[in-house]
User: Which sequence fits this backbone?
């Protein structure tokens, strides 16, 4: 029924409706004292009746029903230790579904340093012998980094290539990431020949095809500040970057001599850029128990620094710099000084330490810095490395034979 019809019914009930022409029958005569209501009073009654009926009231918004809480009288107050009534579940903030939990900050890896502690560098080994990867003591250490000197023309040198192939196969089998340092030719009559930038770039591309997935870290030249011009090595560096996009290319491996800083600065000027990573062979600092040369390089040369060849030296046949001592105990003390005093100088930049070498071959005694002796027995420096990572005891105690070295190149660091 519409509003207009309802109004009409109310009006007729109040006596304002149209007359039909027939006088309604009166049930009884009006009493003498009854006063007929005036038009004004009847109108007021009409308005109040219509208002009470709610016909012209605006539509009210739907209001959700609220829970009715029981009344609490003064003599029925809740005790002090009684908890307040909780909000109904549908009135609080909606909970997140289990698969939409509030994201939290990622936790640090297990091997991360605690707050305020210095991060330890990753330890690798620089060794030319493929037999390193078969030594059970090497496997126990779970090493993930190793360094190999590779002649720039290794693909044309069948003897050296066979050794490099075996080394790369061993690294792949153990899950070790190789760092390949470009070095001089081993072929007779070519040891002093410098490749052009184009030739070196071509060789690097061929390396990537021969050892797929393993040529990702390359150092432009081994110990360049001994007998190479910075501008020439800078050309090689830029050529390698172009031939190996996405690779980590070190500016060069430098010996910690007095000219290391000035050599690096001239390199940067020639290359017109600062390499992201440098290689440093800090034999002098490690074996004289000083931090002078390493600290100076960190202060004056930007970029990360990997100690790509270092460690305690037992013996040298042609010493260029006087060390503080010789023998196995000296080498162990120098290795400990390197790991505990030099590496923490800047833990954010010194991220890796490659110890040279894993073992010393019986036919390569002109330079002896092996953690394993020619007889295959472990030396004290190897225990220092284990203790550095919290596990001093070795599972393998018996000596492991060391085969003869195929490459008799001697480091020039000391």
Assistant:
């Amino acid at each position: 029924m519409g509003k207009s019809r309802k109004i009409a019914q109310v009006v007729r009930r109040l006596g304002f409706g149209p007359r039909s022409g027939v006088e309604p029958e009166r049930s009884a005569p009006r009493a003498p004292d009854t006063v007929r209501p005036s038009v004004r009073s009847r109108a007021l009654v009409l308005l109040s009746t219509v208002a009470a009926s709610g016909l012209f009231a605006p539509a009210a918004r739907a209001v959700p029903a609220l829970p009715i809480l029981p009344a609490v009288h003064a003599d029925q107050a809740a005790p002090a230790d009684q908890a307040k009534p909780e909000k109904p579940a549908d009135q609080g903030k909606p909970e997140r579904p289990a698969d939409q939990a509030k994201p939290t900050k990622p936790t640090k890896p297990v091997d991360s340093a605690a707050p305020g502690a210095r991060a330890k560098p990753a330890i690798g080994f620089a060794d030319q012998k493929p037999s390193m990867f078969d030594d059970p003591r090497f496997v126990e250490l779970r090493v993930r980094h190793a360094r190999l000197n590779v002649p720039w023309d290794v693909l044309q040198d069948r003897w050296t290539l066979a050794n490099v192939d075996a080394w790369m196969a061993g690294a792949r089998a153990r899950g070790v990431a190789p760092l390949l340092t470009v070095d001089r030719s081993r072929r007779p009559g070519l040891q002093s020949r410098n490749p052009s930038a184009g030739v070196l770039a071509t060789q690097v591309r061929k390396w990537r095809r021969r050892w797929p997935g393993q040529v990702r870290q390359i150092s432009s030249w081994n110990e360049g500040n001994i007998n190479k011009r910075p501008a020439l090595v800078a050309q090689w560096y830029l050529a390698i970057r172009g031939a190996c996009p996405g690779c980590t290319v070190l500016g060069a491996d430098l010996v910690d001599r007095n000219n290391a800083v000035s050599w690096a600065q001239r390199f940067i000027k020639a290359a017109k850029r600062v390499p992201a990573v440098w290689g440093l062979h800090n034999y002098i600092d490690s074996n004289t128990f000083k931090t002078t040369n390493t600290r100076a390089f960190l202060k004056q040369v930007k970029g990360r620094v990997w100690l790509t060849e270092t460690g305690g030296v037992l013996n040298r046949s042609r010493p260029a710099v006087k060390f503080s001592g010789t023998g196995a105990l000296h080498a162990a003390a120098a290795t400990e000084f390197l790991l505990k005093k030099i590496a923490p100088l800047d833990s954010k930049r010194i991220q890796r330490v490659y110890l040279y070498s894993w073992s010393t071959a019986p036919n390569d005694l002109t330079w002896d810095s092996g953690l394993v002796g020619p007889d295959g027995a472990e030396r004290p420096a190897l225990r220092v490395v284990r203790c550095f990572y919290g596990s001093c005891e070795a599972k393998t105690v018996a000596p492991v034979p060391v085969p003869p070295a195929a490459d008799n190149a001697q480091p020039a660091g000391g």
